[in-house]
Design brief:
Blueprint lengths: L2 E4 L16 E4 L4 E4 L9 E3 L6 E2 L4 E5 L6 E3 L4 E8 L5 E8 L18 H10 L6 E4 L3 E2 L9 E4 L10 H4 L4 H11 L7 E6 L14 E7 L7 H8 L8 E5 H13 L5 E7 L7 E6 L16 E5 L6 E2 L12 E6 L62 H10 L2 H6 L11 H6 L6 H15 L1
Parallel strand pairs: 1-14, 2-17, 12-13, 12-15, 13-14, 16-20
Antiparallel strand pairs: 3-9, 4-6, 5-8, 6-7, 8-9, 10-11, 10-15, 16-17, 18-19, 18-20
């Protein structure tokens, strides 16, 4: 019997351009990139050089602190570029797929006969370990640690987010196989959260070896961090691991087929998207291959959702943990009178400043911030957006001050940037709250 949790705090952004439940294209494996910057808490050591031939599943780089943790190529082909930044920081390893698109064939063990360390070694060897993320701090999971439990969210409430039920249609067997090996990694079991409204009709609720939880409510109800806070809050000294449901399917495909198969169905959506829908791609796909779904003109191409994604442009690549691409018009304009104008029917207002709230509609939102950064205001707007038992304003100020003790007492172990993204969206002072929280987390990692 699963528990049902109803969240009232939060906000579903009424943004236009949601993806329709249809696949309008399949992008053949081409130029892809694996970006070390996607994986927090690791220092990359390059294992290949430009011109090397690789297969899907060939290690491209490893973690210097954990040499057995490798990060693999999603396609077979040739390493065409190694991109570095300041101080020779490794930014991208680009691979151009060839016609064969060959894959490394791994020996698949019998999961039921595996000991915990054998399961860890298998996930490390096959390049699947980076699918596991650790809280607190949001880093790649430490293979030498044991979490109290593993949490998976089967809900996506992010703006224009891909529907897991549709995106993973036909992958239930792979997900079941992935859950089998994940259960070997923790004594606390695997916890899967599903939406209350569709729980009984979901294919996922037939999975075994998991503890189910039902959630309903506005965004961020689908964030795994919010779900953990209501199921089993993280205290000092405790660790939990999280896995995206798409990556559970990738792990399961490895167990079923013995190959590193990162194909996925992503949502391409947003006010500037052409025919917003789903597209089948390989992980790390180049945005140039998705150009038919982007509008003309000055648009911002975001890998991920509009609140937490990364602006990568038309030449960038899909992030390792991202399952959607958002396309918004750039807000490079100024308005006469600004917010004083009472007739801005095209603008959405959380505070109901404009009369548009009287009729429910979707808005063609853009990237205009509608103001500049100012000092924090004392108000309860953040409390209304964060369904967690913390005081967000005081936590943000503690992060700014670098006060480690207050950060601990105010809940820094429970949050990541994605959990406070709505606070940044509604912030009347335009404060970069996600960056403030990340800086606070980095300070905690350094000092603790």
């Amino acid at each position: 019997m699963s528990d049902q949790i109803r969240l009232k705090k939060g906000l579903d952004l009424p943004i236009s351009g949601a993806a329709s439940c249809e696949v309008t294209g399949r992008v053949a494996p081409g130029l892809v990139a694996v970006k070390p910057t996607d994986f927090r808490g690791m220092v990359p050591r390059l294992l290949v050089k430009e011109g090397d031939s690789v297969q899907a599943g060939t290690p491209l780089f490893a973690d210097k602190q954990h040499p057995a943790m490798v990060f693999c190529s999603p396609v077979g082909g040739k390493v065409c570029a190694v991109v570095r930044g300041d101080k020779r920081k490794l930014l991208e390893v680009r691979v151009q797929a060839d016609e064969k698109n060959a894959a490394v064939k791994f020996d698949v063990p019998v999961v039921s006969a595996l000991a915990r360390q054998d399961a860890v070694d298998f996930l490390l060897k096959t390049g699947l370990w980076p699918c596991l993320k650790q809280r607190p701090y949001g880093t790649v999971a430490d293979p030498e640690a044991t979490p109290k439990a593993i949490f998976i969210s089967g809900i996506n409430t992010a703006p224009l987010g891909a529907d897991p039920e549709y995106a993973l249609q036909g992958d239930v067997n792979a997900i079941q196989a992935g859950i089998g090996i994940l259960g070997k990694l923790t004594p606390g079991g695997v916890h899967l959260s599903l939406p209350s409204e569709s729980f009984s009709g979901s294919e996922f609720h037939k999975l075994t070896g998991v503890t189910f939880h039902q959630f309903s409510g506005p965004h961020p109800a689908g964030n795994v961090g919010v779900q953990i806070a209501h199921i089993s809050p993280i205290n000092k000294g405790e660790l939990v691991w999280t896995v995206d449901l798409h990556h559970v399917a990738v792990i399961g495909r490895m167990l079923l087929k013995g190959v590193y198969d990162t194909r996925k169905r992503i949502a391409v959506a947003g006010p500037s998207a052409v025919n917003p829908s789903y597209v089948e791609v390989t992980a790390g796909v180049c945005m140039k291959d998705l150009a038919p779904w982007f509008g003309e003109g000055n648009v911002r191409v975001i890998s991920g959702d509009v609140l937490t994604g990364e602006a990568v442009g038309r030449e960038g690549f899909l992030g390792f943990y991202h399952n959607q691409v958002s396309v918004l018009p750039e807000g490079d304009y100024f308005e006469l009178f600004g917010w004083i104008n009472p007739f801005r029917s095209h603008k959405f207002s959380v505070s109901k400043t404009y009369p548009a709230f009287l009729r429910r509609k979707k808005y063609d939102m853009d990237t205009n911030e509608n103001g500049g950064e100012r000092p924090f205001l004392m108000n309860d707007v953040y409390n209304k957006m964060l369904p967690m038992d913390i005081y967000p304003l005081y936590l943000f100020k503690a992060c700014l001050a670098g006060d480690l003790e207050k950060m601990e007492n105010l809940g820094i172990y429970e949050v990541l940037e994605e959990d406070v993204a709505l606070c940044e969206f509604v912030c009347p002072s335009k404060v970069p709250i996600q960056k403030i929280v990340r800086d606070g987390i980095e300070l905690m990692m350094k000092e603790m």
